[in-house]
Write a structure and sequence with these properties.
This protein has 281 residues and is an alpha/beta fold. The protein is 51% helix and 19% strand. It has helices at 2-36, 74-84, 86-107, 121-125, 129-139, 153-158, 160-173, 189-192, 217-228, 241-249, 266-280; strands at 41-49, 54-65, 71-72, 114-118, 147-152, 176-182, 199-202, 232-236, 254-256. An 8-stranded mixed beta barrel has the order 1-2-4-5-6-7-8-9, surrounded by 5 helices. The longest helix has 35 residues, at 2-36. The radius of gyration is 21 Å and the shape is globular. The structure holds ligand C2E and magnesium ion (3 copies). Residues 59, 118, 150, 180 line the site of one magnesium ion. This is EAL domain-containing protein. It comes from Psychrosphaera haliotis.
Length: 281
Amino acid sequence: RAKKDVQNRANYYAAEMEDETAWRLEMIRKLTDDFYDQKLQVWYQPQLDLQKNKIIGAEALLRWPNGTGGFHSPLTFIPLAEYTGLIVDIGSWVLEQACIQVNRMTEQGFKDHRIAVNVSMPQFKNTMFVETVASVTQKYHVDPKNIELEITESVVMDDTTVVITALEKLRQLGYTVAIDDFGTGFSSLSYLHKLPINRLKVDREFIKDIGFGGDGILAESIINLGQKLGLEVIAEGIETEEQQEFVKRLGCHESQGYYHAKPMPADELEVFLREFNSKHN
Ligand code: C2E
Ligand code: MG
Ligand code: MG
Ligand code: MG
């Protein structure tokens, strides 16, 4: 009886695993098709300078339509794109869109707005990464200072020498670099000190309980750490005025989150920028 149960369970899990693998393969196939059929989109989420109360730029975020009016979550499809290496092509395309967006904003009078793009490990590992970034940026005549590259702590810690070399080159070329989701990875603090980076992005994890029973002590510690290291600090996932006031009081430089705006298509971003500026000037 017990043996039978175990066998049944094993068969059940084997079938589940097959389903899971089939589902992943199907997602990968559809993602690849849709990407090369140009069905992916890049949306933008505004970033605010807390002292000047001005929008200073936006983060570029991938959107993959799911065919029923919604979108697949990047949290499920980005890992698949990383796994297959497709993220290298997708990443260059996102950067290209970001450059186009910088130019569109400049034409509309939003000068020196910065677009941040997320960069995955397989892109960084690619020996052509820095050259690709530089050639895309040059193709669109965009000043590298208007492009920020976001990398997560896990990327930084994965292959430190490769990453530092690439970051140093990027910095020399004038790009800015932010450590994304800061505090959720495991970067060694002594190492962080040596990294050629410009900004820490405090993860939403440390923000979300502020005003809902949390004391914000970890957010505070990260903001202090960033300041001591001479880095700019941006808080992500700011959803309420209270959360924004909290990080602002601690000297956090910038904020990004639903409180100001959710990610939106490029044309809506331009409307948002015009309205925001007319309200706050
Ligand atoms: P991320 O880079 O940390 O981006 C921030 C995520 O938090 C975005 O989710 C954004 O929509 C969401 N968010 C922003 N403000 C708030 C808020 O106030 N409340 C809540 N609950 N969420 C907020 P999204 O767009 O689903 O992207 C998820 C992740 O997928 C990104 O996290 C990033 O790691 C990855 N990703 C997105 N686009 C790209 C891309 O072009 N390339 C790469 N390599 N990764 C990307
Ligand atoms: Mg990011
Ligand atoms: Mg983040
Ligand atoms: Mg993230």
